[in-house]
Design brief:
Blueprint: H1 3-14, E1 21-26, H2 29-34, H3 36-46, E2 52-56, E3 68-72, E4 77-80, H4 85-96, E5 106-110, H5 149-154, H6 159-167, H7 170-180, H8 192-200, E6 208-213, H9 222-229, H10 231-244, E7 249-255, H11 259-274, E8 290-296, H12 305-312, E9 336-340, H13 341-353, H14 355-359, E10 369-376, E11 382-387, H15 392-399, E12 409-414, E13 420-423, H16 433-439, E14 447-452, H17 457-471, H18 477-494, H19 502-516, H20 520-523, H21 527-545
Parallel strand pairs: 1-2, 6-7, 6-9, 7-8, 10-14
Antiparallel strand pairs: 1-3, 3-4, 4-5, 10-11, 12-13, 12-14
């Protein structure tokens, strides 16, 4: 530990005041939606004893929100689920004032050495679905206030940055990340270390490391979740990336409207500047690095790396022609590198624990963990950090708790609207970038939407294509018109007005989009349909053979008027 960092930690520890009672209220987006702020305000107004009352990040167990976590000195922490104003009044009277936890509302406990535990209450680490996790990026979720620099430091935060700047060269940091096998947690799953090396090899005096938190995928909320629950982890990873690539500037790019992530990111950046972790001579070193937070409008394509750079420059979010590639000419014409929020958030742990430890988690081709968001017809909806290698079936039943409707799970939509769908025949496939690609879908952003037997597959695909059509930036003719034409055909199919020959038309459109589009939006536009046909071709055939050629109907053609201006 450097002298500068040691002094910072010592000063923070000196100013800490321990209370007999610590109450944590989960305040992620799911907690807010369920009423956690009302619970916090009630506690703040009605508690009659000295208490350390905190708003903290969410544990990821969205289906149990609001969660209230109570710790009384020398006793285990008790976690209460689905708390409302009636429950919190009872919990306060019985647990805080009388020292007895309420069994009917509690779901788990956390015991530290020397704590008096509660026999009938399971430990959180043994509570399903929590026990199947390996928390790396999410280790501080539900533990610390995401707006508190001091709490992040006391949890071990910025230790990896100090180690990087004062004990390692940029080349050594880069090599450690490369050796870890960390792959990008976006769509392409490219090696992070190799990607960084492209930028590191450029001798320009001004270089940019960019973080993409556009996250417009339906069913994905893990990037936003990291910024909601522990923004300093991302910022620390971004600064380390800047050091490893010898860059001078960083930029966190967030979609306008994601209020909590925006506020938390800006707060973290300001706190880092105030404490000498951004700016000049960071942590007493000769490394200078500056970070700002940029916003974009409501544009899905802005998540594509060159479109994102266009947006930061104040232009319309449209992909650029390549070459030149971003490592040669990116943001403002300077060499640039872009990473996903999750990707950067793994870096502090890798530097602290070593690349070997990271490679020991997950699979050979996909080391580490996958942060997945489960939604749809699934009991345990939420965000979970699961080691790569678990089968999709085990994920659905052991983590997700199975179907929420009582009907058999029929379909998974993975990796966002450009990802794909999987049928039950693929539920034995393990979570692994390469294995899922072989099965016909991608893990991508980590969003997994679950559907039961009542789901109309053709209608689901129609909705995905409608999303893709609306979100096309319109720059590439094959994408702009291809998505429109595919949507037109699927609309007819859902109305029972299509014919089997339309499948061949859709396939030809998809092939043209793949070879004729600049970015993944068009290149992968046919993916939802092609993956669905792999598992549910009979449903498409049935829809399209119900059409009677004797019934001549006039169809209104869908024009690309809904594409963004």
């Amino acid at each position: 530990m450097s002298e500068f960092f040691n002094k910072l930690v010592t000063e923070i520890k000196k100013n800490q005041i321990d209370q007999e009672i610590l109450i944590r209220v989960g305040y992620g987006a799911s907690g807010q939606a369920a009423g956690s702020l009302e619970i916090f305000n009630w506690l703040n107004e009605n508690l009659k004893t000295k208490t350390d009352l905190r708003l903290v990040g969410a544990l990821g167990l969205s289906y149990l929100e609001p969660i209230v976590d109570i710790k009384i000195k020398d006793k285990s922490r008790v976690l209460y689920s689905n708390v409302d104003l009636k429950k919190i009044s009872e919990i306060t009277n019985e647990h805080i004032y009388n020292g007895n936890y309420l069994k009917e509302y509690a779901f788990a406990q956390i015991s530290d050495d020397g704590d008096q535990g509660f026999e009938e209450l399971p430990e959180l680490n043994n509570f399903s679905p929590f026990k199947f996790q390996k928390r790396i990026v999410s280790q501080n979720f539900g533990e610390i206030d995401p707006t508190s620099f001091e709490q992040y430091i006391l949890s071990g935060g910025y230790k990896s940055l100090d180690k990087s700047l004062n004990s390692m060269t940029p080349e050594e940091v880069l090599e450690e990340v490369k050796n870890s096998g960390l792959r990008g947690r976006g769509g392409a799953a490219f090696s992070t270390g190799i990607k960084w090396s492209f930028l590191a090899g450029n001798d320009s005096q001004t270089k940019y490391v960019l973080c993409n938190c556009e996250e417009g995928d339906p069913g994905a909320f893990n990037d936003k979740g990291i910024l909601e629950n522990d923004p300093h982890t991302l910022l620390e990873g971004l600064i380390i990336a800047g050091y490893a690539t010898k860059s001078s500037h960083g930029n966190i790019f967030i979609r306008q409207g994601h209020t909590i992530p925006i506020e938390n990111a800006r707060n973290a950046v300001n706190q880092a500047y105030e404490n000498g972790l951004l700016g000049t001579n960071i942590l007493g070193s000769d490394f200078n690095f500056h970070v700002e937070v940029s916003l974009t409008g409501d544009s899905y394509v802005a998540g594509e790396e060159t479109a994102l750079m266009e947006a930061i420059e104040g232009k319309r979010s449209m992909p650029r022609f390549r070459p030149p590639f971003p490592a040669q000419s990116g943001l403002w014409g300077k060499p640039s590198n872009i990473n996903n929020v999750k990707t950067l958030s793994y870096v502090p742990w890798i530097i602290d624990n070593g690349s070997k430890e990271f490679k020991n988690i997950g699979t050979e081709s996909s080391p580490g963990t996958a942060i997945v968001c489960l939604s749809g017809h699934i009991k345990n909806r939420g965000m979970y950090e699961i080691p790569f290698g678990m089968s999709l079936g085990d994920l659905l039943h052991n983590v997700g708790g199975g179907s929420s409707t009582g009907k058999e799970i029929k379909i998974l939509q993975t990796g966002g609207p450009l990802g794909g769908v999987l049928g039950k025949e693929a539920f034995d496939v393990i979570m692994d970038f390469d294995e899922m690609a072989k099965a016909g879908a991608i893990l991508g952003s980590g969003g997994i939407i679950v559907g039961d037997q009542n789901v109309d597959v053709v209608d689901l695909i129609r909705n995905l294509i409608a999303f893709n059509q609306f979100e096309s930036c319109g720059k590439c003719f094959p994408c702009r018109l291809g998505n429109t034409h595919m949507l037109e055909i699927l609309e007819r199919a859902c109305d029972g007005e299509s014919s089997i020959g339309d499948l061949d038309v859709v396939k030809k459109i998809g092939e043209n989009m793949k070879v004729g589009s600049l970015c993944g939006h068009g290149q992968l536009g046919y993916n939802p349909i092609s993956s669905a046909l792999k598992f549910f071709d009979e449903e498409f055939i049935n829809k399209m053979t119900n059409f009677s050629n004797n019934e001549k109907k006039i169809h209104k053609m869908i024009l690309p008027s809904r594409t963004r201006p």
